[in-house]
Records
---
Amino acid sequence: MSLEALDKALELELDALRVEGRAKPPERVIVGVIPPAGARGPRYRLKGSEREFIRMNSNSYLSLSLQPELIAAADEASRQFGVGPGAVRFIDGTFAPHAALEERVARFVGKPAAKIFNSAYTANCGLALTISSATTYWIGDQLNHNSIIRAMRIAGVPSANKAIYAHNDMAALARCLEAVPADMQRVVVIFDGIFSMRGDCAPVDQIVAIAGPCGGRFKEGVVTVMDDSHGIGAFGPRGRGTADHTGALPDIVIGTFGKAFGVNGGFIAASRMVVEAVRQKADTYIYTNPLSVADCAAALRAVDLCDGREGRSRLDHVQAMVVRFRRGIETMGWPSIPGPHPIVPLLVRDTPRTHALVQHLYNAGVLAVGLTYPVVPRGDETIRFQINAAHTEADIDHVLKALATFTG
Ligand SMILES: Cc1ncc(COP(=O)(O)O)c(C=O)c1O
């Protein structure tokens, strides 16, 4: 037995990805974190480089992952319950920190109940497996995250049972709802709260207003589902995400503990019945060990922090840094997509130039992500900057200075 033949076949497939420009570069390895000092935020050391880098590509918007209270909570939970659950949830793998986190995050997003998952990715898959049926029709935004698209495939949603509306186009959403076949009994409108490549948000108030009145046409109604992975904790006046920002709460909210909360894991928050159905039907919940109690305890502490004075002050700081950064790139004449979210896209609109700018930033000690053709259409090439609560004014100015010296 040998993997020789399979290796050869896979090599050809990966070569094709490289030729198409879709292959991922080698992963950089972080080998050290240098704590903030004076006017400087944290810096990162990469394997094979002497340089210290500012991360402008982290989802950890509130910068909580090194927060001592979170680390202490994770340590304490591990000491009390052990580092692994020893079983899946329904075979006595449910520990007090799992239950506590579910209760806490449900309360945070304003829903009666929640179930936690290993990630938001598996939460999306779990939801689709739970609520899809032969007479369920799915309507989604064109720019929905890969995990939503993959979830529908895993749940076996046929193409006759789904429609896509142009990004944030409410007239197109209304047309999709109009066109739902009459034999459908349940309609799901599903969308990202924050679109991770652009930093813009879904007009949740309009989506809810458009979907609501259509409910009566279908036996099991029209359900709105928002994956607010980039919004939860990072957006809205109280950090409660895109619902907080738009003033409208969809029926089901999916989120992650792996971005603003700085830990790991995902959740579905909804009615008690939906959450019980998830527990009974979502394979990505049922047949896999849950998050460690360390993750749960740290995430619980993160939600508590976010929900209080500390969270508010971090959000205020992130906002101030977003404004400073946006003002800087505007002054230099770089176009962006406007918005208050800490994702700030810089529209370069050219693939070689984007690569050159990412490299220029790297040489100046700045880590940022370039989105180039064919991952995005020609003309939409972008560098995605992400501001977080650990960035200082000096850090933002350092990045702006690096941008100002780009001559490509
Ligand atoms: C909208 C959306 N959903 C889900 C995910 C995945 O989150 P997690 O890392 O918790 O699986 C992401 C992150 O990239 C995302 O942007």
---
Amino acid sequence: MSRSSRLLLLTGSLVMIGCRQDMHNQPRYKPLAGTGFFGDGRSARPVVEGTVARGHLRIDKARYTGKEDGMDVTEFPFPITRADLLRGQVRFNIYCSPCHSRIGDGNGMVVRRGFRQAASYHTDKLIKAPVGHFFDVMTNGFGAMPSYASRVEPDDRWRIAAYIRVLQLSENAKIEDVPADQRVALEKIP
Ligand code: HEC
């Protein structure tokens, strides 16, 4: 070993010995440990009154409940774009079609295997139902249908509701609703 590397080794070890980890020894509490410091004996302090968890400032009531003054809202709380419809379709096919089927007639695979008949979206009642009603059903469940609030986030519930409107339109459309240039292709389908 050369002289210089021996010197380096020596200073290196001295520096290491000098290393102390005082920051490890801080006065602190383990999570949820008790304490005599606060009157209520809890080291975990309650949140300041009026604190709102990040992402949970839900000022727009209609957007998170589907209701206004106790009534189902009749309009979407944000503009629905093509991208929203496409996402609504994906979410619908994942969460709703197992029972309601991909076209929304209520005869999904789970129903065909014996689950209680799911609603068809193509009844007069549901065609006329305000969009807030669909949001409400997804949020709170309906009869035999469970709530989807834990699985489908609020804005996705609106997107699904928008896609249900698409199904209602397309399943009840007449041939005259199809643009003339596309009718030919459609009529060729046996
Ligand atoms: C596990 C099966 C199942 C799934 C999945 C399901 N539903 Fe349902 N749904 C039902 C059944 C069953 C009914 C009829 C409830 C009854 O009559 O008790 C129903 C009824 C409804 C109704 C009619 C409510 C009314 O006013 O009559 C709507 C709207 C609806 N579901 C929307 C949805 C949407 C949107 C999804 C996806 C997020 C979904 N459902 C997923 C089983 C399901």
